[in-house]
Input
Amino acid sequence: MSSAGYRKLALALPGAEEDSHFGNPDFRVRGKIFAGFNDKGMAYLKLLPEQQHMLVAAAPAVIAPIPGAWGKKGWTLVNQDLADIDLLKSVLLMAWKNVAPKSLQK
Output
């Protein structure tokens, strides 16, 4: 999926806004980052470590932990070129739910 398509999916989530982090576009809800992407075709997401392990096991060619300490905390990379739209929708929603306040999740 293109970065434009990923952006559209992320911004369709309630309360989602675009900003930037270290020069890369990111998506936030109430100031908390839940996702973003870089210019190398990689998306990143704020997942729980358990969610990350499950997804990496299911799609190791598409999903990987971010190297280092951030990855151990659940931050996850998704190869946008290899991921299908259903997977991207699912992981974006998962990441959004991890940071969105309960009032927005209703």
Summary: The chain is about 40% helix and 30% strand. Strands lie at 16-21, 24-29, 32-37, 42-46, 63-65, 75-79. The longest strand covers residues 16-21.
